[in-house]
Amino acid sequence: MTLTSAQQADADYARWYTGTIPDGEYEIPKVDRSLLDPSLAPTEVAYSSAHRPGTIVVDVDEKRLYHVQEGGMARRYGVAVGRQGYTLRGTGTIGRKAKWPSWTPTANMLRLRPTMQRHAGPGLANPLGARALYLYRGSQDTMFRIHGTNEPWSIGTSVSSGCIRMLNEDVLELYDNVQVGATVVVRRSGAAPTSA
Q1: Mind listing the pLDDT tens digit for each residue in 104-129?
Q2: What predicted TM-score, i.e. pTM, was given to this entire model?
Q3: Is 6 exposed, middle or buried (0-12, 13-18, 19+ CB in 10 A)?
Q4: Active-site pick, 51, 67, 119, 147
């Protein structure tokens, strides 16, 4: 039997998952991590920095997010970052958090892709995934997010419109361990953060 292109796309998508994680009214597809570089898996690492515990540091070049812990350690996650020219840089804070957020593309996203979907409500097809952490500077929403993704193959790449993507199961963990008001530093490898 020959598969249609839509059936092939579904089959390719399905191979990324090995089960589900219950989360309220939703069953989050659990990613088969054997299909990803092992270094993208969450892990505790030694992390020497001047950042206080609770700080999130996103290293754009490494495509890693570090959640700074006590005792010179951090929880490290593989992430997808913005394409060249679409990356937030500098320091901000988590202004709010949302479970199963709604999504609306920014004006810039619509300018670049006028046929883009205009809105997605909460659910498994939402581009923000199961959780979103909203990045602010002062009281202003930067329109950048740390969020889940339904495209696990994007982790470890520079592909987004600037947001920081995580596997849904990883963003669940980060969401539960990060407070509103936490500092977020987005930097290049080894470079001090600069304002955007």
Answers
A1: 766 766 666 777 666 667 788 888 99
A2: 0.85
A3: exposed
A4: 147
